[in-house]
Amino acid sequence: MNMNLEFERQLTIPMEVKKMYPLDDELIDIVEQRDREIKDIFAGRDDRLVLIIGPCSADKEDSVLDYITRLRKVQDKVADRIFIIPRIYTNKPRTTGSGYKGMLHQPDPNKKPDMFKGIVAIRSMHIRALKETGFSCADEMLYPENHRYLDDILAYVAVGARSVENQQHRLVASGVDVPVGMKNPTGGDLSVMMNSITAAQRGHTFLYRGWEVHSQGNPYAHAILRGYMNKHGESLPNYHYEDMTHLVRLYVSGRFENPACIIDTNHSNSGKNPFEQPRIIKEVMNARRYSDDIRRMVKGFMVESYIEDGAQSVDGGCYGKSITDPCLGWDKTERLIYDLAEMV
Predict the structure, then answer these.
(1) Per-residue pLDDT tens for 267-300?
(2) Residue 191 lies in a domain
(3) What CATH number is given to the structural domain containing 279?
């Protein structure tokens, strides 16, 4: 039986794209140094907090690089307390999956999809961020088979709430050499997330990009608490003290390396109200001060932030304003980072 698919063209494989857009020795050294520092934080050898911060979806290169350049200046002032990993989420679609599907699909949000141009655009943007700011960045592994296009650049990988139960995501995460955050599913069942972490921390043999491959396990796979939806479609948080102590117990009850958690301050934790994010951070930091177990487990935060507050339609035309979920604008973001540094 034929599939109801139209095959347009075979795309360039990751190895060839890397040869077309390579990292020089200086950039490789930057990536490796940042990788060591990030792993030290997740392993508890470094007490700094990780801050994974940036637009919901990286839509346009110039405004994203403008934003990250601003982050660079702030990072230099808080480097002894906070380790910033900018979000360059190049696969991020709208929640329904219809319409705009991220830069990988549409390097120009106002033009039709072009996957090859998208592959080139996302690699070029990550390289430009690394070259111009010294930041290796975070991206979401929405499509596991595409990870190889960026695996030599990324500092951090997230597996989303709708992907965390997927076997291919779990197995590929087990072969990734940087920390991978597993979000709790949209329904809130933490056992799904913990099973995903277990799978990612173990070695496996599986099929990947037409190859039989073997992974060694990723000891830095960890939890991301992002809130959840109840059966009525209402957002409920899971960043409160009781939620985090419950996660501590789940970690203790299993065999996990480097128990760690990132708190996603937007999504269902904020009800997609980005202006709640500073308040959520303050509550979690208070819990870290009260409980040594929570302090050791919570390694940092994930924040959705851009140049302008809020969100707009794809053709809205406002520079630096999200075209997917609403984000916290730059002025409030800068204040958030300095306030967080005071609380560390």
Answers:
(1) 999 999 999 999 999 999 999 999 999 999 999 9
(2) yes
(3) 3.20.20.70
Compute the distance between CA of residue 155 and CA of residue 50 in angstroms, rounded to an integer. Answer: 11
* Confidence band, pLDDT 50/70/90 cuts, at residue 95: low
* Domain-embedded: residue 287: yes
Euclidean distance between CA atoms 118 and 128, whole angstroms: 15
Q: pTM here?
A: 0.96
Domain encompassing residue 219: 14-343
Angstrom CA distances, 279 to 79, 171, 188, 339, stand at 22, 35, 22, 11
Of 71, 220, 191, 77, nearest to 132 by C-alpha is 71
How many domains are contained in the chain? 1
Which residues sit opposite 51 in a β-bridge? 84, 301
Distances (CA, A) of 81 to 30, 71, 170, 263, 300: 19, 15, 31, 17, 11
Alpha carbon distance 103, 236 (integer Å): 30
Q: Rounded distance, CA 37 to CA 35, Å? A: 5
In the chain, what's the furthest Cα-to-Cα distance?
Answer: 62
Q: What are phi and psi of 40, to 5 degrees?
A: -60, -40
CA-to-CA separations, 222 to 55, 91, 100, 198, 338, in angstroms, rounded: 22, 21, 29, 9, 26
- Examine residue 273 and state whether it is found in any structural domain, yes or no: yes
| Neighbour tally for 195: CB within 10 Å | 16
Q: Is residue 67 part of a domain?
A: yes
